[in-house]
Amino acid sequence: MTTLQSCPVCQGTTFDPYLDCIDYTVSKKTFAIQKCRCGFLFTNPRPADDDLPAYYESAQYISHTDRGATLLDKIYLLARTQTLRWKKKLVSKPVMDNGNPKTLLDIGCGTGDFLKTCQSEGWTVQGIEPSTNARQIATRKLNTTIYQNLGEISGQSFSVITLWHVLEHIPNLNQDLARIASLLDKGGMLFIAVPNHKSRDGASYNKYWAGYDVPRHLWHFDRQSMSRLLSSHNLKLKEIIPMKLDSYYVSLLSESYKNPGARIQNMVRGFWGGLQSNTVARKTGEYSSLIYVVTQ
Q1: Buried/exposed code over 159-170 (b: 16+ C-beta within 10 A; e: otherwise)
Q2: Is CB count within 10 Å lower at the N or C end of the chain?
Q3: Is the pLDDT reported for residue 81 higher than 90?
Q4: How confident is the model at residue 101 (pLDDT cuts 50, 70, 90)?
Q5: pLDDT score, position 46
Q6: What domains does the chain contain, in order, with CATH numbers?
Q7: Greater confidence, 70 or 154?
Q8: Cα–chain-centroid distance for residue 11?
């Protein structure tokens, strides 16, 4: 296990207990989430970097496969299909506005579905994916090299870089964010999607909230901590965009953690929880997941 000694957002060294959460996906172990005095949350202590891959080795970790074994998996894959073109439209607008080339790097590209959607419409695409299985699937789909890590990329830059629910997984947060920023073209855009623990579903489900997903999620963001992190790298936050479908899937998954075995009831309660979260967020802006649109 590795224990964080300083906050990556403010470099503070005083942390308070926040929550103890169970890893429902792989190990069933309990992990602590701590809170820095600046408000940033992180899993601490956490598995050592070399041990983290073992916590992704599960058929339940659906983003690394193309198969849906359970009803929740099938819902996830359906939602993913619905959002692919929406994401492509989001990243296309700044490229069209700025006249930049259509070059895309998707970090944590999983099985390559987003890259495939963009590639089919004329984008030059590259991906990074640590999972061997997912990387092999993506390579077959795209007929291009998918890198294992950021260090393998040299001599390239991109008009768009995307991290769809990836930044919360990256152990070396500041080091890798600085490297990612260096790969952006002048006028390029960075899209970072992460869960928001200040959403209504985050507050309601508390230790059962699927958005915590310990220990795979090392960092637990809100709008304030993300803004502060970006500012420390001289990155400019242009816009925050809600991912409204996420509240339903996250609520369904959270219900399965809270009430295992109550399948029908969980479906009803999960849908209602997602609806309530989005309704509250219309006033507060605190949606279950947020996309931060960033430039240099």
Answers
A1: bbbbbbbbbbbb
A2: N
A3: no
A4: confident
A5: 97
A6: 15-295 (3.40.50.150)
A7: 154
A8: 23
Residue 81: both structure tokens together: 């299909």
> How much is the pTM?
0.92
| Residues 106, 27: Cα–Cα separation, whole Å | 28
Other CB atoms within a 10 A radius of the CB of residue 275 amount to 13
Please say whether the beta carbons of 129 and 138 come within 8 A.
yes
Q: How far is CA 36 from the centre of its chain?
A: 21
Residue 64: pLDDT above 60?
A: no
3-state class of 111 per DSSP?
coil
Q: Give one DSSP letter per residue of 130-178, joined into a string.
A: --HHHHHHHHHHHTS-EESSGGG--S--EEEEEEES-GGG-SSHHHHHH
Q: What span, in angstroms and rounded, lies between the C-alpha atoms of 273 and 30?
A: 25
Tokens of 101: 């080339």
